User: Which sequence fits this backbone?
């Protein structure tokens, strides 16, 4: 490529990168994540959706049994990515499962995001699942925007909500807008930045047609717009806000020191557009991606690179194929590109790249940093794999958690053994649980490990639905596991509960933390790791 052509290509990548925002919504189940997603799509008019769409209507249309289970339990097990355009921006929304048992999958999805939107139920505040997800974002340095939902319902007092965010999550909450009334009195929001008032009409559709430009909270025109007592409390509250709460600082937000807070009602489509407009201004474009040993990857001046954060089997029964979801980190992706596959150390041609809309799929010909593409995966791609058109960058690795619940798995029908083997291999590849083999425990049966019981249930249902294999799971007494560096494996005393996962990484299982501590005391030369990767191991030694 000539120098001018190269410069031109980089300019395109730069412009496309700058207009992208890649984000995930985190919430405790029932806070309104699905509803907010649907409303956001209304503003964009979804152009592409990837993965299992969780819009309620589609949920109802989903036929497979484990999707039924999703409905029964009111949770979303699969995570999806969807793309939409709004006011010249391209938004990539990564949908994250909202149940704690699926934390591993959720964690990995969050890592593919540049910003997180934390949805809180105004009546419930900060709930357990939110805390867990919040911590992942914080550890990873992902800035967080807060949307306080269900303002049309009885709420906690607003100041106690802000205090809760600060005390429980340890991040300063800066309201960008302030509600006028709450619950049955909810009448609108005031934008602190430009002093515009958005009135809430309690009619279907909710949102006010146009904003009223006030001269400030004391503007006499407001007297006729709101009930006396609502306006009086609003004026008192805003005085406290302006006097006692600091201003928004972009720098502090990008460093996860503060979270800007918005208020609204997703189901009534109120406060969403205001939120979205602010969001586009403050959420960072996918400009840099963290490298493992410090530093950041420049998305514009580096050729194409990306990492696989999710693998999903049987997205569509008609196709019966597996899809690997890749987040583009740098450069331009073009269909047909030949890339270096970091883990396998070989070249792979990416000829089938897709975006999904429910069960339909569209070919993706090009993609830019921040975008998510689905690649047909004949077993070539595993979670965490890095692909690159040039030298494979050492992107910060995805966290791999040590499972806390274990069981042996057996197929109860000999006629289904072949599909059973295929099923466990493919589903383990999705990362929904860990599949181990062991010479010591399990009596020759595969050993499975997960973060929670529900993962086991889903695994069983899917083996039956998608592979026709009925199974039995026998829970084992282990509750603690840790990974071992390969060079320490020969030092492990005989009789220890040594297991190996499908990527040949070794782990030790213990019945309790106490037992693990005892083992470590007896065998101080063996390093017990929280993560299986070599890179993290060397960091720990330093
Ligand atoms: P989730 O994905 O976080 O689990 O929550 P989801 O959007 O499914 O919302 C959970 C429930 O809360 C839904 O009611 C939804 O309609 C309701 N909801 C969402 N936003 C608001 C809001 O701003 N105000 C009020 N009052 N309710 C809200 P549901 O009865 O469980 O389901 P549906 O029958 O309405 O679909």
Assistant:
């Amino acid at each position: 490529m000539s120098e001018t052509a190269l410069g031109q290509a980089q300019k395109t990548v730069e412009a496309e990168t700058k207009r992208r925002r890649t984000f995930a919504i985190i919430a405790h189940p029932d806070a309104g994540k699905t509803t907010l997603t649907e409303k956001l799509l209304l503003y964009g008019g979804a152009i592409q959706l990837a993965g299992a769409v969780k819009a309620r209507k589609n949920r109802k249309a989903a036929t497979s049994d484990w999707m039924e289970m999703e409905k029964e339990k009111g949770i979303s097990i699969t995570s999806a990515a969807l793309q939409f355009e709004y006011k010249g921006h391209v938004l990539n929304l990564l949908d994250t499962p909202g149940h704690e048992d699926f934390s591993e999958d959720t964690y990995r999805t969050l890592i593919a995001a540049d910003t997180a939107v934390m949805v809180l139920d105004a009546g419930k505040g900060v709930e357990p699942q939110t805390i867990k997800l919040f911590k992942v974002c914080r550890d990873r340095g992902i800035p967080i925007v807060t949307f306080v939902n269900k303002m049309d319902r009885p709420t906690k007092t607003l100041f106690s909500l802000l205090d809760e965010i600060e005390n429980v999550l340890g991040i300063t909450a800066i309201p960008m807008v302030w509600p006028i009334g709450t619950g049955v009195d909810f009448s609108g929001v005031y934008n602190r930045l430009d002093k515009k008032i958005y009135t809430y009409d309690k009619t279907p559709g909710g949102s006010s047609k146009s904003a009223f430009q006030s001269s400030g909270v004391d503007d006499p025109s407001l007297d006729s717009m709101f009930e006396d007592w609502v306006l009086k409390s609003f004026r008192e509250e805003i005085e406290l806000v302006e006097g006692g709460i600091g201003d928004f600082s972009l720098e502090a937000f990008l460093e996860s020191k503060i979270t800007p807070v918005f208020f609204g009602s997703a189901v009534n489509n109120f406060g969403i557009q205001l939120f979205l407009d602010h969001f586009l201004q403050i959420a960072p474009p996918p400009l840099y991606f963290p490298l493992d040993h410090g530093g950041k990857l420049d998305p514009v001046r580096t050729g194409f690179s990306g990492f696989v954060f999710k693998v999903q089997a049987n997205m569509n029964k008609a196709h019966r194929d597996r899809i690997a979801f890749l987040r583009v980190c740098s450069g331009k992706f073009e269909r047909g590109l030949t890339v270096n596959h970091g883990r396998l150390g070989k070249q792979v041609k990416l000829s089938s790249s897709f975006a999904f809309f429910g069960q339909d799929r569209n070919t993706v010909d090009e993609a830019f940093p921040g975008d998510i593409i689905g690649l047909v995966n004949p077993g070539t791609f595993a979670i965490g794999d890095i692909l690159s058109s040039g030298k494979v960058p050492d992107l910060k690795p995805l966290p791999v958690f040590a499972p806390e619940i274990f069981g042996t798995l057996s197929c109860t029908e000999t006629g289904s053994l072949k599909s059973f083997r295929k099923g466990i291999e493919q589903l383990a590849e999705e990362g929904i649980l860990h599949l181990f083999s062991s010479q010591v425990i399990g009596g020759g049966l595969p050993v499975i490990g997960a973060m929670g019981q529900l993962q086991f249930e889903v695994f069983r249902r899917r083996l039956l639905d998608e592979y026709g294999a009925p199974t039995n799971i026998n829970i084992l007494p282990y509750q603690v596991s840790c990974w071992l560096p390969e060079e320490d494996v020969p030092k492990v005393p005989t009789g220890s509960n040594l297991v190996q996962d499908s990527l040949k990484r070794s782990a030790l299982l213990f019945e309790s933390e106490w037992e693990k501590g005892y083992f470590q005391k007896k065998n101080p030369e063996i390093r017990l790791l929280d993560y299986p990767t070599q890179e993290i191991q060397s960091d720990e030694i330093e």
Q: What stands out?
A: The radius of gyration is 25 Å. The first strand starts at residue 20 and ends at 27.
